[in-house]
């Protein structure tokens, strides 16, 4: 059973999300929060698998709340604000997923499942903009110290940069899915990243691919 905390400052939206989750046999809502500060407090206490988080909320917004939840719960941003600044801020804060509120119920439930199993997910319309942006700009962050990674971890980083899930990485590298997930976790820790989405952004920014990740 996937345990979910819903954080949104609109009671009607929270009620709607609770109703959607109630229609899934494998998802249960364990708590609600009306602002980012309450979301952090509730998630720290309840330890849900996924926090479905709005961005604009009183006291503490969803971006800062996501940053505070690193290591506590995976965050799926669900918002009406799809501007590039919001997307990059959320992903930089460590969000594992980013969806717009026009997402239909089945897609939202599947996104919760994807994030819960350790994969990342971004709204298709947002993904297209991100890819276009990566194609235009030069890296703004220092190049990651790839020397920290094993040859296998560099391969995993390259595949995460292509948007592959843990299951797809496992098939591509002929390993168990649990092993792929372990490699992803170690790669994130060595590079000081909070989510596989951040790793994918880094890989794309620095043009990291299998050609460059192969061992000497």
Automatic annotation (TrEMBL):
Swiss-Prot/TrEMBL keywords: DNA-binding, Phosphoprotein, Transcription, Transcription regulation
The keyword Glycosyltransferase belongs to this UniProt entry's keyword annotation: no
Residues bearing the modification 4-aspartylphosphate: 54
Molecular functions (GO terms): DNA binding
Classification via SUPFAM superfamilies: C-terminal effector domain of the bipartite response regulators, CheY-like
UniProt-listed GO biological process terms: phosphorelay signal transduction system; regulation of DNA-templated transcription
Keyword Transcription recorded: yes
Highest taxon above the source species: Bacteria
Pfam families from the UniProt entry: GerE (PF00196), Response_reg (PF00072)
Domain HTH luxR-type: 142-207
Domain Response regulatory: 3-116
CDD domains associated with the record: LuxR_C_like (cd06170), REC_NarL-like (cd17535)
SMART domains for this protein: HTH_LUXR (SM00421), REC (SM00448)
PROSITE patterns named in the record: HTH_LUXR_2, RESPONSE_REGULATORY
Identification of the protein by name: LuxR family two component transcriptional regulator
Organism from which the protein derives: Stackebrandtia albiflava
Organism phylogeny: Bacteria, Bacillati, Actinomycetota, Actinomycetes, Glycomycetales
């Amino acid at each position: 059973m996937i345990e979910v905390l819903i954080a949104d400052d609109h009671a009607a939206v929270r009620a709607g999300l609770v109703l959607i989750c109630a229609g899934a046999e494998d998802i249960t809502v364990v708590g609600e929060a009306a602002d980012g500060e309450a979301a952090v407090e509730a998630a720290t206490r309840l330890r849900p698998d996924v926090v479905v988080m709005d961005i604009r909320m009183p006291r503490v917004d969803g971006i800062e709340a996501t940053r505070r939840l690193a290591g506590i719960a995976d965050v799926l941003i669900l918002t009406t604000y799809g501007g590039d600044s919001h997307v990059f801020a959320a992903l930089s804060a460590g969000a594992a997923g980013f969806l717009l509120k026009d997402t239909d119920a089945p897609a939202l439930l599947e996104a919760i499942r994807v994030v819960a199993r350790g994969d990342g997910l971004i709204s298709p319309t947002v993904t297209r903009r991100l890819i276009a942006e990566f194609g235009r700009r030069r890296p703004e962050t220092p190049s990651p110290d790839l020397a920290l990674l094993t040859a296998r971890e560099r391969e995993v980083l390259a595949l995460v940069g292509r948007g592959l899930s843990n299951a797809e990485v496992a098939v591509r590298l002929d390993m168990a899915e649990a092993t792929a997930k372990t490699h992803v976790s170690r790669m994130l820790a060595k590079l000081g990243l909070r989510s596989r989405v951040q790793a994918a952004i880094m890989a794309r920014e620095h043009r990291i691919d299998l050609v460059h990740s192969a061992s000497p």
